[in-house]
Amino acid sequence: MKKVYKFIFMLTLIILILNSYIPIALADTTIMEHGKVISILRNIPKPTEKYSFPGQIVEIEITSGKYKGQIVEAYNIFSGNPYYDIHVSPGQRVILTLEEENGKLKSANLSDIARDIPLLILVILFLLTLIILGRIKGFKSLISLAFTIIVIFTVMLPLILKGFNPMLVTIILSAIITTVTLLLISGWNRKTLAAILGILGGTTCAGLLAYIFGKAAMLTGLGTHEAQMLGFIRDYELNFQGILFSSMLFGALGAVMDVGMSIASAIEEVYNANPLTTPRELFKSGMNVGKDIMGTMANTLILAYTGSSLPLLLILVGYKPSFLKVINLDLIASEIIRALTGSLGLFIAIPLTAAFSTWLIYQQILKKYYG
User: Fold this and answer.
1) Pair 157, 108 in one domain
2) Residues 222 and 330 reside in one and the same domain
3) Does 66 lie in the same domain as 181?
4) Which of 22, 51, 101, 289 could crosslink 266 through cysteines, CB 3.0-4.6 Å?
C-alpha cells in the first residue's frame, strides 16, 4: 500500500509541476471584499442624472481586506430582474466590489449576498460525516476527492483553455482519476484492475457515442448560457463542441465507476466464497448484479440531468410549444444525448467489468497451477 501512496504522491507532484507550464492569460483584477450592512440610507425609486437605475444607497462596513473597518456607501442597483436584484437588510453579510484610484478607495458597489459561511458549514458537515462513517475508507475517499479536484482545476481546465482537444484531455484524465481513486480505495489487486479496465471501456464508449451522435445531430455546444458566455473570452480559441462532448463523458464517469467497482467486488466475493465456481458462473453472477444495478443507475443519471434542467422543463410544460420544435432545440438535444450516452456507457461497463474480472481470476489460477 505504501507503493500506491508513493505513486499517487509522485503523480500529484508531476501534475502540479506541469500546471506551472500551463499559464492562464485571464486575471480578475477586481477587488472583492466582505461587508456587513449597517443601514439603508435612502431609496432611489427611479433613474436620476446621478443614478442610471432605480435602487438604494446602503451604508456598509467593510469586514475584510486592507480597507477592513471602513464605512462606505454602496450603490445597490435594482434592474427589475429578480435574478440580479439584491434585497438587503441591516446586519446582513454581503460581497462588495471595490474600485481604487491612486491606491485609495474610490467607490464601492454591492455585488452579491455573502453565501460562503453556509457553504463552508456544509462542506465541514460532509467531511465529518464521511470520516466518521467511513473511517479509513472515508479518509481515503477524501484523498481521492482532493486529487480529482486538483486534476480538474490545475490540469483539465487549463489544458482545454489552451486549445488542447477536450475529448482527448478528458479521456486521459478520466483514466488517471479512475486509477488513482480505485488504488486508494482497494489497493493494487486483480479486482481493482478489472474495475479500472471495465470503467475505462464504459466511459470511452460513452464519449465516442456522444461524439458520434453529437456530430450527427450537429450540436454546437452553445446551448447553455454558460457556454455562450465563454464565447466572450477572446483570449482563447475554444472548441465548444468538444467541450460539450467532454462534459458528457466526464458526467458519466462517476456512475460508471460505481457500477464497475460493484461488479468487480461482487465477482471477487463469489470466487472467494467458492473457488470451484466456473468462469461461466462467475460471469453470470457479475451480469446478475449488473442487471440489478442497471435500472437504478440509469434512473440516477436521468434524474440528475432532469434535476439540472428542471426550470427549462417547467417552461416547456407551461408554454406547451410544438414537440417538433422542442425536440430539435440544441439544448434539449444535448441533454437527451448526454443522458442516453451516459447510460449506454454504464450498460457497456457491466459486461466489460464482468468479463475482465472473470478473465483475470482464471489467468491467475492458470499461472498458479501451470506456470
Assistant:
1) no
2) yes
3) no
4) 289
Residue 86 burial class via C-beta count within 10 angstroms: exposed 0-12, middle 13-18, buried 19 and up = middle
C-alpha cell belonging to residue 78: 435594482
Cα distance between residue 172 and residue 156, in whole Å: 10
Q: How many CB atoms lie within 10 A of CB 136?
A: 8
Distance separating alpha carbons of residues 64 and 117, to the nearest angstrom: 14
User: Do residues 258 and 110 both lie within one domain?
Assistant: no
Q: DSSP for 35-57?
A: EEEEEEEEEE-S--SS-SS-EEE
Q: How far apart are CA 120 and CA 126, in angstroms?
A: 10
CATH number of the domain at 199, please. Answer: 1.20.1640
E-only strand ranges, the chain: 31-44, 55-62, 71-77, 93-101, 104-113
**Three-class DSSP category at 205:** helix
Rg of the chain over CA atoms, in angstroms?
26
Q: Whole domain around residue 99: which residue ranges?
A: 31-114
CB 198 within 8 A of CB 349: yes
Give the contacts of 5 (CB within 8 A, at least 6 positions apart): none
Regarding whether 83 and 231 lie in a shared domain, the answer is no
Tens of pLDDT, residue by residue over 303-345, are 777 777 777 778 778 888 888 888 888 888 888 888 888 889 8
Return the SS3 of 62: strand
For strands 93-101 and 55-62, give the pairing: unpaired
State which H helix or E strand residue 222 sits in.
none
The reply to whether 9 falls in a domain is no
Q: Which residues, 6+ apart, have CB-to-CB distance to 9 below 8 Å?
A: none
